[in-house]
From TrEMBL:
TPR repeats lie at residues 35-68, 35-68, 72-105, 72-105, 120-153. Belongs to the Ycf3 family. PANTHER family: CELLULOSE SYNTHASE OPERON PROTEIN C, TPR-REPEAT-CONTAINING PROTEIN. Seems to be required for the assembly of the photosystem I complex. This is Photosystem I assembly protein Ycf3. The lineage of its organism: Eukaryota, Rhodophyta, Florideophyceae, Rhodymeniophycidae, Ceramiales. Keywords: Membrane, Photosynthesis, Plastid, Repeat, Thylakoid, TPR repeat. One of its GO terms (cellular component) is thylakoid membrane.
Length: 172
């Protein structure tokens, strides 16, 4: 059953109507259609800050969705929720699972880098210089991969890489 839309703006309503029409005319299985409905409801709940409801929908979508590319976005969104809730270890697990299915997901690479950078800052504040350097180096590697895939994105990360001397050769 579709989730009631609390957001009444024209674009959201239009997207929902168009998506429903496309789902009805596309030759997809019942499971694929149901997976999409769960995914869409998960995104809606997530955008409203209803993270528990979003996770329920995403987990249901994962059960039904077979396409690796589509699964990667579900896993990525689950990672976003765990990251938003400060559960960085779980977020990293889901981001890595997403990347296993779709290695061209720069936003997952960026979010992994952000977590490592945050952990590097925490370690630096605790005077743990070796741990800090390790976390910053990990952040740099993931940001380089993200920038390689999306060279016009992540300008702050590019600046950080330059100012810390970590910008050498951006590649896979």
């Amino acid at each position: 059953m579709p989730r009631p839309q609390k957001n009444d703006n024209f674009i959201d309503k239009t997207f929902t109507v168009i998506a429903d029409i496309i789902l009805k005319i596309l030759p997809t299985s019942k499971e694929e259609k149901q997976a999409f409905y769960y995914y869409r409801d998960g995104m809606s709940a997530q955008s409203e800050g209803e993270y528990a409801e979003a996770l329920e929908n995403y987990y249901e979508a994962l059960i039904l969705e077979e396409d690796p590319y589509d699964r990667s976005y579900i896993l990525y969104n689950i990672g976003l929720i765990y990251s938003s809730n400060g559960e960085h270890t779980k977020a990293l697990e889901y981001y890595h699972q997403a990347l296993e299915l779709n290695s061209k997901l720069p936003q997952a690479l960026n979010n992994i880098a952000v977590i490592y950078h945050y952990q590097g800052l925490k370690a630096a504040n605790q005077q743990k210089s070796n741990a800090s350097k390790t976390m910053f180096d990990k952040a740099a590697e993931y940001w380089k991969q993200a920038i390689y895939l999306a060279p016009n994105n992540y300008i702050e990360a590019q600046n950080w890489l330059k100012t810390t001397g970590r910008l050498n050769n951006i590649s896979k």
